[in-house]
Specification:
The chain has 14 helices and 20 strands. By secondary structure, it is of the alpha+beta class.
Length: 651
């Protein structure tokens, strides 16, 4: 839009018109300092009205509120997540600490028990060797014709050290083929005494008497074919036999109703191999085994073989091995009652691994059960009880990082002394927690603390929303009042003048500083005054001014009531205003019965004179129609009123 240069005549006219409209000179955005004044059309390009500003500000406020809401939501998520993770981390730390304590107890107690067991076996072997040497010398006899005195009592004490409720202890002398007959005769005489002693020391055997035990005892060294239910004399292995002689507790052989006495335990493959290792290294040895108790159930365990020598002197390298003490125990029973505390938590998973393959029990010629596999058994310890989870590593992989792996049994044997093809296992314990244990340490604290944090933030948001609601109500009231005032100002001033007044007032407030004030006798007073402000005067070089006057109005109004005069002027001026609005005529003012308007301002137009003439023509017609219509209510001479119109054109 082109901003026209002012001419002196138009400038004086515009300034005069504004003074007649506004009353007193107003602050202007065009100071009287020699600069070119800015036309109203150009000013409107820079400054919007108050309604537009309000809408813009409202949109900005909404954006800020949305941003604040998103920030609060993000903060709530972050803080709630951090709270949850911190509490969860604390609970997991407590869980891991408690588990490490349990794992340490499992390893420590297991090691102590096995250490006590091997020490007790060694002491028992030395005691038997020492006692047998004296007794055999007094009887002028020799091995294997020896019976360990007080066997039931001594074996029971030894069994208690294993930590197993029902271990199986066997004393078996080494019988050479040449001593077979003498041994069988010696055993036949000894069994009645041994059975009676066992019944007295071990307690009731289900009503079975010593005589009944004796009737079920095979009088020769034998082997058994369980599948065909056959018993037959056992052949010697390398000229040796290892018959069961004393046993704790005494019981029948599984699957066949005979006593195990005189049964050649060389028929057990793992026992025969364990004997070879023990004789080679001249130290106690251990072997793992797995027994199928029936077609479904099987149990993993170990055999510990302690050699017995003819002399008690451990430094004598020429000692002769004359028998063995064999302890057979199941690890399931071993892990029961392992914890020192009765109320220990449940869910400790123990994986027992052997460094050597494990043999199935191949005795009794049960060929369909013969096999070999690596011993990896998983147990779960639940306080004072234990269960077998399976013969493989079945721990939960998610607890791999918490694994506690320690050596359980390592005899430290020189592998070079072990016969080729045989192996002495090292047993290791791998302890893990389980979900069952972790659940005991899982509390609702994570949810509680997180809920508290979320509640606090929710309360903060509610307070924010309440505050926003109150502020919006106050702002709504203020904006209603401002809009009403703005409407009043809009009815008094043109929109361009109104906006420039707002801008001038805003600039005046920004430029007003405390330093611009001086002290007088009555207080502070601003140096600038309204009289020093430049008037709002713009140049409109191409305009047409319209003057319309009601002819006969003075005489007519002198004979009418004020209310009738008001009705007439309201109707006439209202009709003229509608014509002016439609033709884009700017209404300057009304003074009494005089109506002043202008064409070509505040928006310049080339045909301003034509528009002014159109306004005059339509105004004259409208005047006649209006006065004729009001003649009945305002009097007969109302139709005589006429409109005089004058137009002055500026080019």
């Amino acid at each position: 839009m082109k901003c026209h240069q002012p001419s002196p005549a138009a400038k004086r006219k515009s300034s005069t018109s504004h003074r007649s409209q506004f009353g007193t000179p107003q602050p202007s955005s065009n100071p009287s300092n020699g600069e070119e004044p800015v036309p109203a059309s150009c000013s409107r390009e820079r400054v919007g009205n108050s309604a537009d500003v309000a809408k813009t500000e409202e949109k900005n406020v909404v954006r800020v509120k949305i941003l604040v809401a998103l920030i609060l939501l993000l903060a709530v998520c972050v803080v709630a997540t951090i709270t949850y993770l911190l509490v969860d981390s604390q609970e997991r730390s407590n869980f891991e600490s408690q588990f490490n304590g349990y794992a340490s107890e499992v390893v420590t107690v297991s090691r102590e028990r096995t250490s006590q067991l091997f020490n007790a076996l060694d002491a028992f072997s030395v005691s038997v060797s020492s006692q047998a040497a004296g007794e055999l010398q007094l009887r002028n006899s020799s091995w294997p014709l020896y019976c360990i005195p007080d066997w039931s009592v001594r074996a029971q004490r030894l069994a208690e050290l294993t930590g197993v409720e029902d271990p199986f202890l066997t004393f078996a002398p080494i019988v050479q083929e040449d001593d077979r007959k003498a041994w069988e005769d010696f055993a036949k005489e000894a069994y009645p005494i041994l059975y009676q002693d066992a019944i007295e020391k071990e307690g009731d055997k289900g009503g079975t008497t010593a005589k009944e035990f004796l009737e079920k005892t095979i009088p020769f060294i034998f082997n058994a074919d369980v599948e065909n239910l056959e018993l037959f004399p056992s052949p010697a292995t390398d000229g040796l036999m290892l018959p069961t002689f004393q046993q704790y507790p005494i019981k029948f052989i599984p699957l066949i109703p005979v006593m195990p006495m005189n049964f050649n335990i060389f028929e057990f493959t793992e026992t025969a191999e364990l004997f070879q290792v023990t004789r080679a290294i001249r130290l106690p040895a251990i072997a793992s085994f797995s027994i199928r108790l029936d077609t479904v159930t099987r149990a993993s365990g170990s055999q510990i073989m302690q050699p017995i020598y003819d002399r008690a002197d451990t430094s004598d390298e020429d000692r002769k091995m004359v028998g063995i003490i064999l302890i057979q125990l199941h690890w399931l029973d071993y892990f029961k009652n392992l914890f020192l505390e009765e109320n220990s938590d449940e869910g400790i998973v123990v994986v027992l691994k052997s460094s050597c393959p494990t043999n199935w029990n191949t005795a009794l010629n049960i060929t369909k059960y013969k096999t070999s596999h690596d011993m990896v058994v998983t147990y779960q310890i639940d306080g004072s009880n234990a269960i077998v989870l399976g013969e493989e590593d079945l721990h939960d992989p998610k607890y791999d990082s918490l694994e506690v792996a320690e050596t359980f049994i390592d005899l430290g044997i020189d592998e070079s002394k072990v016969p080729e093809g045989l192996c002495v296992p090292t047993l290791t314990l791998h302890v893990y927690p389980s979900e069952k244990l972790e659940e005991k340490f899982a509390t609702s604290n994570r949810i509680i603390y997180t809920s508290v944090v979320v509640t606090i933030f929710a309360f903060t948001v509610l307070v924010f929303l309440l505050y926003d609601f109150v502020v919006r109500r106050l702002q709504s009231k203020v904006m209603d009042r401002i809009n009403k005032q703005d409407m009043i100002v809009a009815n008094v001033f043109p929109s361009a003048i109104r906006d420039r007044l707002y801008q001038a007032q805003g600039n005046a407030l920004q430029q007003s500083q405390p330093a611009d004030k001086t002290m007088n006798g009555r207080g502070f007073k601003n140096k600038s005054s309204d009289m020093e402000s430049a008037p709002l005067a713009d140049l409109f070089p191409n305009t047409s001014i319209i003057f319309a006057d009601i002819a006969g109005f003075t005489a007519w109004s002198s004979a009418r009531e004020p209310q009738q005069v008001f009705i007439l002027l309201e109707n006439i001026y209202g009709a003229l205003d509608r014509i002016a609005k439609r033709l884009a005529i700017f209404k300057v003012e009304t003074v009494g019965d005089c109506y002043v308007g202008a064409a070509g301002l505040p928006d310049p137009m080339d045909n301003h004179a034509v528009i002014a003439c159109k306004f005059a023509r339509e105004a004259l017609k409208k005047m006649k129609d209006t006065t004729h219509q009001m003649e009945v209510s305002l009097g007969p001479d109302t139709a005589a009123l006429d409109l005089r119109i004058g137009i002055h054109r500026y080019d």
